[in-house]
Structure formats: C-alpha cells, structure tokens
TrEMBL record:
Classification via InterPro entries: Cyt_c-like_dom, Cyt_c-like_dom_sf, Cytochrome_c4-like, Cytochrome_c_Oxidase_Subunit
Binding site for heme c 1: 37, 40-41, 80
MF annotations from Gene Ontology: electron transfer activity; heme binding; iron ion binding
Organism: Shewanella septentrionalis
Listed name of the protein: C-type cytochrome
Superkingdom of the organism of origin: Bacteria
Family annotation (Pfam families): Cytochrom_C
PANTHER family, per database record: BLL4483 PROTEIN, CBB3-TYPE CYTOCHROME C OXIDASE SUBUNIT FIXP
Residues annotated as domain Cytochrome c: 21-103, 108-206
One GO CC annotation: periplasmic space
PTM comment: Binds 2 heme c groups covalently per subunit.
Length: 206
C-alpha cells in the first residue's frame, strides 16, 4: 500500500513539473507594459526602420534611464513622450527587463595580432578618436566592439538613420541628459560627413 501511494505521488509531481514554463518560454512572453513598444521596435527589439531603433542588446540601465528622460521631458520626441507616460508602476522595469534580455548578434572587431586593422578615417575615429580636436574614440565609452554597457548604448548593428539623427540632436542641443554633457561636446566636434560615415560604419558592424 505504501508503494502505491509513493508511485501516485511521484506521478503527480512529475505532471506538475512538466506544466512549468521553461525559461525560454518565459523570455518570449511579451509583458503587458511592452506590448505597445513592439509595433515600432519589434517583438524581439530588433527595431523597425524608420519607426523605431533597435533595443535588443541595450542594457537594462540605459533603457530605463531613457524612458525616465522621456517621462520627465529631458529627452523629447513626439511619439516616445506619450508612450513613456503610459508606463506606470513597474512598467519601466517590465519594458527595460524584457528588451535588455533579448539577444543581439556578437560583434568582433577585425584584429591582426594585437592591433585593430583600420581601413579608413572613419574607423580611426571609432577606435582611436582625433585628439588634435579633443575627440575621444567612440569605443572609449561604447566598448571595444561597440556593444555598449550601463548608461552607454550599443552602437553595433543599430540603424544608421537613428545613430545619425541622435548625433545631430546632440549637436543641435535638442537631445540632453548625457553624462557631464559628453555626447553634446563630441557631436559638436564632428562634421556632417563624419556623422554620416560613423552612423553607417556602426550600423554595418555585425
């Protein structure tokens, strides 16, 4: 009798375990707060040109901070400001956790020995900067493979049009909220041609 009871109990426990969703399934469930986001940014945060930039690969901290900036009016965009205002309670936490968990393709710089191979002036700006103009390398803050981290967003694989519009916004002063005014200072030292070239360079770095 005791043996039968044990078998029944084991069967019930096994059935319960099978019903538990896997981690992969949980990651694919779009939280309610993020459901408005996918129409412009894609269900996997892949971005939809020209509606919304890529969110996959951005850090949770960066996404959360930008949403707070939109809510406070520090960062202004006619579409994003009202969207951000819909995120109440733990809405920002849900959105930033969901999209930051989405995988992004790894980016590996072209390396010969210990030296990165620079093909042109754009790559030199990205990896070395131009200290004669007080321009640090983009990778100084955005990481050696432009994968970003913390308050610094991923650039590799981001839409060229988005990178360009944001650099121009920093340049004109219509985008703010950067740490110590760093991005505004950098953007103001770049020419229009350099902005265009850098945007295309990082967009194609995959």
């Amino acid at each position: 009798m005791k043996i039968k009871t044990f078998v029944i109990g084991l069967t019930l426990c096994s059935g319960y375990a099978a019903a538990e969703p896997s981690d992969k399934q949980s990651m694919n469930v779009i939280p309610q707060a993020a459901q408005l986001c996918v129409s412009c940014h894609g269900a996997a945060g892949e971005g939809i040109e020209p509606l919304g930039p890529r969110l996959a690969g951005l850090s949770k901290e960066y996404i959360s901070t930008q949403l707070q900036h939109f809510q406070a009016g520090v960062r202004q965009n006619a579409t994003m400001m009202p969207m951000a205002m819909t995120l109440q309670g733990d809405g920002i936490e849900q959105v930033s956790s969901y999209f930051s968990a989405k995988p992004a393709n790894d980016v590996k710089p072209v390396i010969r020995g210990e030296q990165v191979v620079f093909n042109d002036d754009t790559a030199r700006l990205a990896y070395q900067g131009d200290w004669s103009r007080g321009l640090p390398a983009c990778v100084t803050c955005h990481g050696p493979s432009a994968l970003g981290g913390g308050l610094f967003p991923r650039l590799a694989g981001q839409q060229a049009s988005y990178i360009k519009t944001q650099l121009l916004a920093w340049q004109s002063g219509t985008r703010k909220g950067d740490v110590d005014g760093m991005m505004g200072s950098v953007a103001n030292k770049l020419t229009v041609a350099e902005i265009d070239a850098l945007a295309n360079y990082f967009a194609n770095l995959k």
